[in-house]
Design brief:
There is one protein chain. By secondary structure, this protein is of the alpha/beta class. It folds into two domains: 42-238, 3-Layer(aba) Sandwich (Rossmann fold), CATH 3.40.50.2000; 242-417, Rossmann fold, CATH 3.40.50. The protein is 37% helix and 14% strand. The protein has helices at residues 56-67, 105-116, 119-134, 137-152, 165-177, 188-191, 197-206, 215-224, 270-282, 298-307, 322-331, 352-360, 390-402, 408-421, 424-436; strands spanning 42-49, 71-78, 96-98, 157-161, 181-185, 209-212, 232-234, 256-261, 287-292, 314-318, 334-337, 363-367, 383-385. The strands form two sheets. It has a seven-stranded parallel β-sheet, sandwiched between helices. It has a six-stranded parallel β-sheet with strand order 10-9-8-11-12-13, sandwiched between helices. Helix 12 links the parallel strand 11 (334-337) and strand 12 (363-367). Helix 1 (56-67) packs across helix 15 and helix 12 packs across helix 14 (408-421).
């Protein structure tokens, strides 16, 4: 990654020899780890803000595509406001271009004048003018600037993350520069009450293809926009699995240590975790909880912890890098994900950290919102509880703490599920296929390449065959 303000170096967990990665292929039959054939396009990633501390999934995706030999350019619409960065950013090779955002009439006019000096861009401006006039001035101004930048960097396809500002700008840029665009829809950009359904409909209708990360999202979008989802595909977020060593803990510590990770916002449900820990301790359970992350609810959560007298039992650790979270997942006994749907409709799609926890082999307790049930099934891969129910959360946490060695079969199945479905190499191959082939799996089906199984003879994380037999298909 070409920037001067990121830390150098990176780290990765060591995978035990018994853990084997499933060999898989792209829709064209090419092995996932193989570099692409010549003539691959140059993909312009359009992101609202890059880098962003909470969006590790974007970095994992970029790294996996670069590992295939793809040519990428990253366009950031806003400057980063983060003060900490993940070490993995230093491995990104793509140039990062900050797209000008005109803040005055003079700046806006200069953007248009500069774009108009190029005959091809000038012709594109004429074509795109009706759409530009309907757009917000920020979106229109940045789209004009991005059209010139995309041409200058040889971009042949635009891909945005989140069906909001980045996708709006990518769409307008595509109209100006004559470039196809695609986007990945996640959660807030679908479920929040402020989402404009007509803008989302327009984005879906005009895209070369669109991607979303879960079967839940697929069904939701198809039910809302049945006529615009013909090119909508399921491509699950991926992990660099070599960085997440499978290391289950058969016996809990005393007191048992619960870990939760996420921004301190309503949808993460951390107030319910505090309540659950209070209930457990009142019942005589020796349990503590560490919550990693920062956000607007920090003071409110601190006050709740103090009011319950849990100052020595529940700790807010603040933000941590992904590398630090990997270590914490190995030192705690249970991972808690007490998600809720916010009052504004905002909900998590399928947080990456839950997949990371499953990959590491820690017992997982999660609340049932959106796509969580696609990975957490009670008795199979963890404990799934009703959302917003601290009593049920407390019972599940107690069961997880006391499960002992019997939980190993669950953590093995959880690891195998992540290997099968959430390998970033598979994700990169599927995304590349959508650009070059325009298809990824059967139209109208939520299944993706390799979705239904692993190659015969592949072992699970403990080296035993058959650990995946009861994984939900």
């Amino acid at each position: 990654m070409r920037t001067d303000h990121l830390p150098a170096g990176s780290s990765s967990a060591v995978r035990p020899p018994a853990v084997r990665m499933p060999e898989a292929h792209s829709p064209s039959g090419q092995p996932l780890g193989a570099g692409p054939p010549s003539g691959r396009p140059t993909i312009g990633y359009v992101l609202k803000m890059y880098p962003r501390f909470s969006e590790t999934f974007v970095v994992s995706e970029i790294l996996a595509r670069e590992a295939r030999g793809e040519s990428l350019v990253i366009f950031s619409l806003r400057p980063s406001t983060d003060t900490r960065f993940h070490p993995e950013l230093a491995r990104v090779q793509a140039p990062v271009i900050h797209v000008p955002r005109p803040s005055s009439a003079h700046g806006w006019w200069e953007t248009w004048r500069t774009a108009g000096a190029d005959p091809a861009t000038a012709a594109g401006l004429v074509t795109a003018l009706p759409a530009l006039l309907e757009a917000a001035h920020d979106d229109a101004g940045q789209a004009v600037a991005l059209a010139g930048l995309a041409r200058a960097h040889g971009v042949t396809h635009l891909h945005a993350h989140f069906a909001s500002v980045a996708t709006r700008v990518a769409r307008l840029t595509g109209l100006i520069a004559g470039l196809p665009y695609s986007f990945t829809a996640h959660a807030k950009d679908i479920f929040h009450e402020d989402v404009d359904p007509e803008l989302l409909r327009t984005a879906l209708a005009g895209a070369h293809h669109a991607v979303t990360i879960s079967e839940y999202n697929m069904a939701h979008l198809r039910s809302r926009f049945p006529d615009e989802c013909g090119r909508l595909h399921l491509v699950r977020n991926g992990l660099e699995l070599d960085r997440f060593e499978y290391a289950p803990r058969p016996a809990p510590a005393v007191p048992a240590r619960v870990l939760a990770v996420g921004r301190l916002v309503e949808k993460k449900g951390f107030r319910h975790l505090i309540d659950a820990v209070d209930r457990l301790r009142a019942a005589g359970e020796e349990v503590t909880a560490d919550i990693v992350g920062d956000g607007p609810l920090r003071e409110e959560l601190e006050a709740d912890i103090a009011a319950r007298g849990l100052g020595g039992a529940v700790s807010l650790l603040g933000p941590r890098t992904q590398e630090e979270v990997v270590r914490l997942l190995g030192s705690h006994d249970v991972f808690a994900a007490p998600f809720v749907v916010g009052a504004d409709g905002n909900a998590d799609g399928l947080p990456t950290v839950l997949l990371e926890a499953m990959a590491r082999g820690i017992r997982c307790v999660a609340a049932d919102v959106t796509a969580v049930s696609e990975v957490i099934v009670t008795g199979e891969t963890g404990w799934l509880v009703p959302s917003g129910d601290p009593a049920a959360l407390a019972r599940a946490l107690a069961e997880a703490v006391h499960a002992g060695p019997s939980s190993l079969a669950q953590t093995e199945r959880a690891r195998v599920l992540v290997e099968r479905r959430y390998d970033s190499r598979r994700q990169a191959a599927e995304l590349a296929a959508l650009v070059t082939e325009g298809s990824c799996g059967a139209e109208g089906s939520p299944a993706t390449v390799g979705e239904r199984g692993r190659p015969a003879g592949t072992d699970g994380p403990s080296g035993r065959r058959g650990a995946e037999e009861r994984i939900p298909a």
